[in-house]
Write a sequence for this structure.
């Protein structure tokens, strides 16, 4: 399906429009992660109000959210691949902002779960559609960099959510926190819809075919597995780090809001920026370096994770967590950059949705729930220190990531050889472009 674009602009006008759209998409990412992560800082207060267990809160922050995220992601991505992506994203943004505010009036655990399920389903549009739009606004050689900047904006959202949520919770209660972060998103959704342009779709560099061909590529399947393990590591850490500091180091939500928000949010932001920039620079020599950056980052995160978990001082724990999360974030943007080399122009949003879906389903769906269950299981033996030992599961995941991306490095070699053979046989991607597509970099 050809998407009708706006009237032809000058080259400088196109660049300005691309940069403006990029800024707005960064605002979308900011609110996306504020609304997604704010429940983390409110977890203890909500738990006390509703009288539920750690496992129940893990179910709410993890499994419930991830299941509905997955249910919404693929249909919304398919709709975006076939229609006007800007409009789909703006409507989804409007819904999740409104439902975040509705969380503030929940009268029971079930009510809150239903509201969060609605947030999850609509939020699932954000990453895939933003990635698809950015792929048409910038060339492949800059994708990891712009994806990194986008995710850095999301990481600032994580920090902002922790800070705002912690402060508002301390002074006005957890219900008001949902109103404060939910309502402003409505204005940004309208800004996206009425002030940005839908770009022309551009042809991918090496991908071809549809979703079936994408899943027939072993490299893409391996990237799905890696994103799930990476998601487990990230969401388990972000989900339980505030609780770890409250229980083990005796901090309150206001202290955590700015200290942990700054450390984890900036660790994530700088990690995404560094991995995107370094990955793009090295991939100009050899695309396998995307996998190399992801593997090295995962390996370097391990000692800082252990230092953070077993430090006797809260300041050491927090700033070790900064380095832990900085290096642990290195898998993210290189994985999407590789996936978009495999995906065709007709499946970009869906490729991103599947990668994100794996991260959310395994990471957010299983991570916080598993850590919560381990906390309950180890509580009788370790007391308030149980969460410290439960989070060692993240260290194990990092070991698997470091080894797994070495395998990805080798799989990229096989994929490149197959792509070269296909091109030599005349199966050029130019023959498989969707109507109205232009070559990348045009």
């Amino acid at each position: 399906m050809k998407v009708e674009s706006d009237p032809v602009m000058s080259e400088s006008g196109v660049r300005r429009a691309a940069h403006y759209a990029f800024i707005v998409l960064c605002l979308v990412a900011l609110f996306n992660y504020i609304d997604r992560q704010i429940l983390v800082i409110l977890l203890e207060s909500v738990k006390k109000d509703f009288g539920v267990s750690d496992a129940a809160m893990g179910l709410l922050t993890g499994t419930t959210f991830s299941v509905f995220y997955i249910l919404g992601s693929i249909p919304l991505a398919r709709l975006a691949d076939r229609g006007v992506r800007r409009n789909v994203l703006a409507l989804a943004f409007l819904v999740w902002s409104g439902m975040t505010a509705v969380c503030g009036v929940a009268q029971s655990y079930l009510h809150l779960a239903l509201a969060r399920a609605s947030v999850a389903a609509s939020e699932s549009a954000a990453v895939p559609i933003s990635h698809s739009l950015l792929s048409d606004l910038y060339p492949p050689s800059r994708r990891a960099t712009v994806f990194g900047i986008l995710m850095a904006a999301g990481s600032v959202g994580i920090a902002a959510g922790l800070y705002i949520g912690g402060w508002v919770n301390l002074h006005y209660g957890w219900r008001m926190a949902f109103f404060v972060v939910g309502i402003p998103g409505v204005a940004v959704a309208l800004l996206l819809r009425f002030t940005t342009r839908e770009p022309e779709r551009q042809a991918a560099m090496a991908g071809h075919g549809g979703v079936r061909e994408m899943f027939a590529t072993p490299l893409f399947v391996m990237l799905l597995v890696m994103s799930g393990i990476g998601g487990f590591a990230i969401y388990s850490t972000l989900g339980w780090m505030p609780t770890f500091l409250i229980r083990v180091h005796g901090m309150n939500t206001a202290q955590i809001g700015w200290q942990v928000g700054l450390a984890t949010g900036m660790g994530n932001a700088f990690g995404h920026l560094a991995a995107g920039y370094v990955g793009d620079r090295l991939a100009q020599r050899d695309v396998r370096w995307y996998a190399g950056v992801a593997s090295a980052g995962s390996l370097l995160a391990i000692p800082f994770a252990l230092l953070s978990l077993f430090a006797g001082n809260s300041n050491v724990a927090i700033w070790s967590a900064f380095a832990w999360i900085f290096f642990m974030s290195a898998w993210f943007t290189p994985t999407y950059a590789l996936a978009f080399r495999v995906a065709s122009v007709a499946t970009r949003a869906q490729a991103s949705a599947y990668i994100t879906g794996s991260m959310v389903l395994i990471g957010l769906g299983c991570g916080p729930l598993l850590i919560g269950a381990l906390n309950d299981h180890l509580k009788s033996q370790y007391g308030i220190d149980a969460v410290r030992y439960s989070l060692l599961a993240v260290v194990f995941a990092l070991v698997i990531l470091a080894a797994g991306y070495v395998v990805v490095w080798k799989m990229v070699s096989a994929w490149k050889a197959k792509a070269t053979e296909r091109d030599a046989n005349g199966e050029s991607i130019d023959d498989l472009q969707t109507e109205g597509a232009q070559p990348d970099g045009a």
